[in-house]
Amino acid sequence: MSGTWRPIGIVAGWQTAASLCYYSVFAATPFIREAFGLSRALVGVLMTVLTLGYTLNLFPSGAAVDGFGEKPVMVGGLVALGAATAGVVAAPSYPVLLLAAFALGAAYAGSMPATNRAIVGAVADARRNLAMGIKQVGVTLGSAAASVVVTGIAAVAAWRAGFLLIAAVALVGTGAFALAYAGTGGTGRLERPDLGGLRANRAYLGLVSAGLFLGAALFTTVGYVVLYLTEAVGTTVGLAGIALAGAQVTGSAGRVVAGSLADRLSLPGSAARAPLAVLVGQTALAAALYAALALSTPPAPVAVALFLALGATILGLTGVYYSCLSALVDADDLGAATAGGQTALNAGALLAPPAFGWIADHLGYRASWGLLAAAALASIGLLLGVRRRV
After folding, report:
1. Domain hosting residue 222, numbered range
2. Is 150 in contact with 163 (CB distance < 8 Å)?
3. Using 50, 70 and 90 to split pLDDT, how confident is the model at 124?
4. What are 292-316's pLDDT values in tens digits?
5. Shortest CA distance to 325 belongs to which of 336, 341, 346, 347?
């Protein structure tokens, strides 16, 4: 394992820089709402457009990873992410802001297919769940850093200055990554993904169906933590930003612990069974936490504690989600399979944030959290179906 730590660290660092760019919009929702005079529902539309750009470019990115290897996709993607982050700063109106958000999402699309392929190519099966969890820490670490940078700089200067700093970090990081990482090769051909085998894989289809509801819960939680804490609980923006960053930190811990636990579990049958069992447990805990938010509006310390716990559960499950996915498909199909799995996560994120915001506008936040509790329960039912098939 010692010889694989270097590529794991490099890939996790790239993922951190990429996520720093992508999640900057989530951290800036209060400032964007004020700057452009948006309703809560229109904030949700912004997140939907961001996710739409991400989703539409997933299969082309997955095909590029399978065809040419992960390194070219990762280098080009980080350049595009830096440019799109700077584009958010330049947006003079809400429609232009939506275009910049779409471009930012599209630039982020190669991250999951590329980094998953990198981990599968570098790590032996016995430690792959842990390695996948460590790599996924880059997502939560980048999101946490975005929360601190955007809200911290907004406290002393214009919020757009934080986006410029993030864009500069991405562009500098591109050069460092290109020099440090060798990568693995692909087939040498850019081909349309062959989805026939994936459609026939009932366990895979069950997992990505669950991903629809998991993505709805995950992305909506990240998008509305700051607004909920400031508007319903009455905290300051600074404390809300710290709470979001803290949830990302506990999410990072959750990904590592979940991956390590899945490696240690000894379950007969498919290699997917151990990460699947951990995934079901994390989702069940998340459902209980959403129910707590739906039943009452807690005081600030309790609300922050609930979001820290949600970080360890709903934000901490993507590592074992992808470990389970990689165990259900052939290595040659991993780029397309990852694109399908991420598309499912994103599809939930396309619909849920506007619905959450609309319900909050008309019925209150407690009803909105009840929606996410229902989504978590639906995903558990689908995951239990996958368990029967493997």
Report:
1. 2-180+196-389
2. yes
3. low
4. 999 999 999 999 999 999 999 999 8
5. 341
Examine residue 322 and state whether it is found in any structural domain, yes or no: yes
Q: Name the residue type at position 28.
A: A
Look at residue 2 and tell me whether its pLDDT is greater than 60: no
Q: What is the largest CA-CA distance in the chain?
A: 58
The structure tokens 């996948």 sit at: 132
What do you get for the CA distance between the two ends of the chain, in Å?
28
CB 148 within 8 A of CB 241: yes
How far is residue 117 from each of residues 73, 170, 186, measured CA to CA in Å?
A: 11, 21, 10
Residue type, 82: G
* Count of domains for the chain: 1
Distance CA 359, CA 353 (A): 10
- 213 found inside a domain: yes
Hey, what are 31's tokens? 């400032």
Q: Give residue-wise pLDDT tens across range 167-212.
A: 999 999 898 888 888 777 666 666 666 666 677 789 999 999 999 9
Which amino acid is residue 17, in one-letter code?
Answer: A
CATH number at residue 137: 1.20.1250.20
Residue 43 included in any domain = yes
Contacts (Cβ under 8 Å, ≥6 apart) of 152 = 162, 238, 241
Q: Tell me, yes or no, whether 243 lies in a domain.
A: yes
How far apart (Å, rounded) are the C-alpha atoms in residues 92 and 249? Answer: 33
Q: Which of 384, 133, 387, 380 is nearest to 270 (CA)?
A: 387
How far is it, in rounded angstroms, from Cα 232 to Cα 245? 19
Nearest to residue 244, comparing CAs of 31, 85, 23? 23
